[in-house]
Amino acid sequence: MLARSLRVQRKNCIWTDSSRLCSHGTQPGSITSSPIEDTNASQIRRQGAMWCRACDARLSRGVRRIMSIFERFLGDPLFANLTLFEPTTQTSKSVAPETFPTKRKFIVSDQPIPQDVSDSIGPVLTNVDGLAPQEISEAVFYIGIQCDSDALPVLRRIKQHGGTFVPHLNFAKTEYRFVNRLAHNAMVRTWTEKGHAVSHLHTGIHENLCEALDITRTVEGDYVEIGVYRGGSALTAINYLDQLACVGAPCRKAWLLDTYDGFTYEEAVGSMDALWSGTHRLYGKDETMKYIRETVMSDVSSEFELIAVNICADDLPLGIKKISVANIDVDMYEATLAALQKVSPLMAQGGIIIAEDPTATPGLYGALLALDEFMTSPAGRPFYKIFKGSQYFLIRMH
Predict the structure, then answer these.
(1) pLDDT in tens, 29-59
(2) What are 385's strand-pairing partners?
(3) What share of the chain is helix, strand, coil (3-state, %, to 5)?
């Protein structure tokens, strides 16, 4: 959206037939009221260049806002503080370089390190693979790495060879996109490449989706999503499947099921859950499916299939034989219960049903009731329910 906005703004950064410099959403004459014949060419060029620079600045700010949620150490300069303070005992402990007079010091980080920090501590490395075991044993490593999955190989090698490490002194609870590099990459792709094309970009929802796919990476079965809407969560799921395939995990197909025409079917019209009837209509079934296929999913690699389904009345597609992850996001009581009942027999042992809507209460009380009824039914007994903040995980135990 940002890039498209910039193109629109630059396209409009011209002199129009009315001899005024016009901008997107700006009335002619708001930048200059001089007719073109009264304005020399250099002034025109300057004003055009100024507007284009403003467009660039606006784009840059927008990109920075989007990317800021993927920066773990934003506003927290690495190694600016090297003193641990214990408020209970009112004592301090320094881990500054002079604390280790006999050891060589290194910084290990994938983040920009200011020159003055490097000068005060030591050279910056992205990993310790190039160091000999003796070099590691005789060194102390100051470590601040974006994702925990990238930090673990460094920590293991330091431990293996008897080295010492000092972590960046930040003890805030982390989030899954900073735990798992593959999740970080998948979500960055969704936010930056297709964020303008989808909706419901809630970091917790997308993180939990990635975590479920990671937990089940060795579980047999496909990914099934019931309730696709504009395809935001489906895109992150497929981006994550692409990431897993790059590291050698078995390929999984994604089945994306929805009416693609909102809550217009008979069960929605007659539902006791009165909120949803007639809502969630987009562009009509065919155009919505085309939009998701050609716009949202245009750059993915993993196999996927969009199928128009009324989950209350229709069976699951015959091609779905076994499911490793089922993501259910259909809001309404009847649709949620039907989805749970229809996917549960196909869930592999260790597979996960993600129930998104029952956490959004009171607005989604219908989905909450459906989940409760499912879990107390014979079909729900093999599943263990875990509250994950923005979703419930139902893990098939047997």
Answers:
(1) 333 333 434 445 556 456 655 655 555 555 4
(2) 394
(3) 40, 20, 40
Residue whose tokens read 């395939």: 245
Cα 77 to Cα 112, 152, 163, 292, distances in angstroms:
10, 21, 24, 40
For residue 305, the surrounding DSSP H or E stretch is strand 304-308
Distance CA 79, CA 87 (A): 20
pLDDT, tens digit, for every residue of 162-209?
Answer: 999 999 999 999 999 999 999 999 999 999 999 888 888 999 999 999
* CA–CA gap between residue 212 and residue 393 (Å, rounded): 8
Q: Which residue has the tokens 């009335």?
A: 27
CB-CB contact of 276 with 263 (8 Å): yes
The structure tokens listed for 358 are 């029952």
CATH 3.40.50.150 domain range(s) in the chain: 181-396
Decide if domain 181-396 falls under CATH 3.90.226.10: no
Beta-bridged to residue 352, according to DSSP, are 325, 395
Q: What CA–CA distance (Å, rounded) separates 120 from 97?
A: 8
Torsional class of 350: left (φ above 0), alpha (ψ -120 to 50), beta (otherwise): left
CB 251 within 8 A of CB 301: no
Task: Assess contact for 110 and 168: CB atoms under 8 A.
Answer: no
Element (H, E) at 224: strand 222-226
* Alpha-carbon span 92 to 94, nearest angstrom: 7
